[in-house]
Structure formats: structure tokens, C-alpha cells
Amino acid sequence: MVRRQVCVEDEMVEDTMENTEEILKKKPKQDWTLTDLPGVGALTAEKLSLAGYDTFMSIAVTSPGEIVELTGLTEANARKIIQFARSALDMGFENAEDILAKRQLVEKISTGSKAFDDLMGGGIETGAITEIFSEFGGGKTQMAHILSIMVQKIKEEKEPYVVFIDTENTFRPERIVQLAKGAGLDPNYALKHIKVARAYNSDHQMLLAEKVEELIKKQNLNVKLVVVDSLTAHFRAEFIGRGTLAERQQKLNKHMHLLLKLADTYNLSVYVTNQVMAKPDQFFGDPTAAIGGHIVAHASTFRIYLRKGKKGSRVAKLIDSPNLAEGECSFYVTEEGLKDI
């Protein structure tokens, strides 16, 4: 009976594939809805939408397992729905010159320090994840507050907003007021354009990241910066011992890929701070290493190591980038923001 039911469902999807293709050709892409997908009715479309899968693109880039879990459809049907979405969007290879043209849409968020901006090729990029790690007191959270102000100086048709996911109770509105005055912004304006949420565990942290899309779509906010301070604190506290390492890394990997998807889809910048650990078996060089291992390292577009310098200064070292050379710069963190040496 189960086999027969699956076959009947597959045949129904097959029958509607050709008809749906004809219908889509007559409709502009902006009018496409999930119910235009073969085998997706109003109830299934509602389940997908509630989970954040409300466009052809979101369906095209998901996995069959996700759709099966959310809707109860068979895996065969889920695969056909995904394949149809990909075919409709004509997803495939494109010329490098087309990608270069898209790169013109990338914006740079100034840090307030010319030396730091030069190190980063003009500032912190949108459409990417920038990870900064350091020991305590290195300046990670200071940078998070500073970027939350500097991004609001970007001139766009819609006012830029910041989403600040606070995992360690480090967000301070008083610091935002100081920095806003130093940057010549109205403190009240700056505070109103920062959405803050306190995450109490790793699941809550991941849920808040998922809700960023709701702010963009349902509240129509122009989110240009998502801050996660810190990325690994909850994961480090909840998964203890080598026996839980694989589970922790899988969960962290899923979280990082969601953040990367947000950055790429909405051309926003994701800034994450990371904790460090000391390698006791390293006798030469700096024994400091970032938490999260290769998972965080590979998922981050840019990696920056912050350390304390001479006379209260900070040194930022760019250790990984897809297009920039390794290098470092020095600056001071002041009440008004970053100051070049």
C-alpha cells in the first residue's frame, strides 16, 4: 500500500510538471509563488513559508531532507520540487564578467581607521562573513559597537539597520551613544536603528539568526549588518568533551551557513566575534588559536586576529581573505571610535 501511494504521488507530480512550466512562462518572475511548484498546494506552501522557504530560490538551494521534514512529502517528490525550482530559475554556470558586475553592488563599511580600511580593501565587506578573534580585552566587542555606528553612515534610499545578537551580555547602549556623538550621528537615531536580542543558548542563537529574514521581509527593514557577539560562547559551554565535538561542529556548521546565506542573499555584512584557546603544546610563536576549528575557518570569508599592542594600542592582522594579501595595522580604540597611530 505504501509503495502504491508513493507511486501515485510521483505520477501526480509528473503530470503537473509540464502544465506548470507552461503557466510559469506566461507569468513574470516576481509573481511566482510556491503554489506554482508542481505538487505544492496551499497547506504545503504555508508550512514552507513559515519555515522561511517562501521563494523559488530558497527552495532551489535547500535539501530534500529539509522539505521532507517540514512538509511530510516523499523524498522523491521533494527532489522533483527542488529540481523544478532550479530549472525555472535557470541555475547554472555564468560568465566571470557577470559575477564581476554583481560585485559592483558590494559595499564597504568603514571602521573609522584609514589603516584598518586599507588592510580590508576599503572596509568591512557586505555579502560576506568577517570573523574577528582575540583573547579577552582584545577589542572584539568594541569593534562590534563601532561597526554598528559606522554602517549607519552609508547613504542609501532606505535607512540602514543593524541586528545585534548578544550571547554574552556585552551590548551597551551607553557605548553606542558615545560612538554616535563621535561619528556626528544623533544618538537617538543610532539607537533606534539597532535591533538587539539576547541569546540564552545555542538553539536560541540559531533561531534569532533565522528571524533576521523576517525583519527584512515582513518589517521591510534594510538590514546591512548582522553582529553575533560571540559566535562560539554557547557552543563551547554546552558541548563539553571530545565525545560531543562532532555534534557541536555540525551544529556550528549549520549556523555559519545560515549566516552566509543571509549575507549573500541580502548583500549584508555579517560580523562575528570568536573566542580563543591556548595551545599548551606549542613552544614557539603565538599559542593562541580560535575556537571552532576548520568549520568556522572555512565558513568565514575574512578572518582577523586582534591583539594588544604597545602603549594601549591594538593590532589587527588579516590572516585569511579570498582576494587580499595578509597584513596588519595598528590603531587606538578611543571613546569616539578608532584612531590611527
How does this structure look, described?
- The chain is of the alpha/beta class and 341 residues long.
- It has 2 domains: 88 residues, DNA polymerase, domain 1 (Orthogonal Bundle), CATH 1.10.150; 239 residues, P-loop containing nucleotide triphosphate hydrolases (Rossmann fold).
- The protein is built from 14 helices and 13 strands.
- It has a 9-stranded mixed beta sheet with strand order 5-4-6-7-3-10-11-12-13, sandwiched between helices.
- α11 runs parallel beside α13.
- The N terminus is likely disordered.
In one word, what is the shape? globular
Q: Say what the CATH topology of the largest domain is.
A: Rossmann fold
Strand order of the largest sheet: 5-4-6-7-3-10-11-12-13
Write down the overall mean pLDDT. Answer: 89
Individual helix count:
14
CATH architecture of the largest domain: 3-Layer(aba) Sandwich
Helix coverage percent of residues?
A: 40-55%
Taken together, the total number of domains comes to 2
In angstroms, what is the radius of gyration? 23 Å
Outline the biggest β-sheet.
9 strands, mixed
Ranges with pLDDT <50 over ≥5 residues?
1-10
H/E topology pattern: HHHHHHEHEEHEHHEHEHHEEEHEEEE
Structural class: alpha/beta
Number of strands: 13
CATH superfamily of the largest domain: P-loop containing nucleotide triphosphate hydrolases
The CATH top-level class label of the largest domain: Alpha Beta
Distance between the termini: 76 Å
